[in-house]
User: What shape does this take?
Amino acid sequence: MSGKSVRIDHLGVAVTSLEEARKFYEDLGLTAEGGEEVPEQKVRVLFLPVGESRIELLESTNPDGPIGRFLAKKGPGLHHISLEVADLDGALERLAEKGYDLIHDRPVEGAGGARVAFVHPRSASGVLLELVEHR
Assistant: This one.
């Protein structure tokens, strides 16, 4: 995983209402795309392209899901940084070999059918880090 083969895919923002958040960003001049529900993550998502990256708005569909718990504990705000990698399996293997704490040791399905896995904040300088591989 070299810096040239990794890019910021998106910033994940937990929101209480997709529609309210969407309105703000559209009033700012951005255009929303790709709204969908990701049942495995108990979340609805909406993407807003920004340059070569995106903002992902995340609305919980269940208070027991990851975003529901985050909102209850911390309120709305930055939830995670997502880095796109070319070889997610290889990246997870290398991080595990080096002893980093992984929330997922194998990829799970994310928005848009992407393969994703999360690295625990204690291993990523206090930031929840998502690694994503687009198919």
User: Anything to note?
Assistant: The chain is about 20% helix and 40% strand.
